[in-house]
Amino acid sequence: MPCAPCWRRARSRASVPIGSATGSTRCRTTIRRSWSRWPPDPGPVCAARAFGARRQCGAARRRRLFRRPANAHILQRADGRPLSSTAGAPGMSKTALLALLVALAAAVAAGGGVYLWRAGDEAHRAGATRTTGKALIGGPFALVDHTGKARTEKDLLGRFAVVNFGFTNCPDVCPATLQTISDALELMGPAAQRIRPVFVSVDPDRDTPERLKAYREAFDERILMLTGSEAAVARAAKAYKVGYNRMKPAEDGSYMVNHTALIYLMGPDGGYITHFP
What we know:
The protein is of the alpha+beta class. 33% of the residues lie in helices and 14% in strands. The chain has two domains: 4-59, no CATH class; 72-276, 3-Layer(aba) Sandwich (Glutaredoxin).
């Protein structure tokens, strides 16, 4: 059975009489059939249909995509309170998740070239953005990972990199996006071995390697988490055209960080391919 919003919309469409003022001459069966096809934007109504699981309602799909990690106690709001839930967080849309899977799977299977461009076309139709030429996104950086090991842009070469920026005190968008990337890696199966997921903190004062290591336990273990000095993070953010700024602290000293919330897909050569909202 479809979820309630889908059922109501299907019922309202089926109730349109043949030859009505709308000019439609399709029978009720045809109308119902057209609704069962992939909607142009599944959104929060019934995202499961976009993946072919038509008997699973959208609510169940959302619970799986944005499930609360078992150790979510390490995710805290800026005021120090624990994150209540990642369910329903804005994060990356399910359409964009599909776009990410399409682009990554095609890129891994083909190894680049025209197939990557076609993958970009599919991703663009599903919600991603692609440029017509090589964008000036990406470049040199010198950071440290969650183990304290020094990392540079050379560590991303040889695999497709999925790069996004955020901070561990982010209450919703960052954990939801990382969970979506984790789910995408799981759905890709063995093909995910050619992917290097990267999370760069824009809050180096609080996001030490130790904190990133604890934060990473809530998500896929293949995610490389990076931090560094204020200057090093600023250089990395500038290379990826990421803007961020620290908000005015609260009375207790806690603060939030506004930042660009995009996911960048980079090629094995370090070149920009596309990005996702």
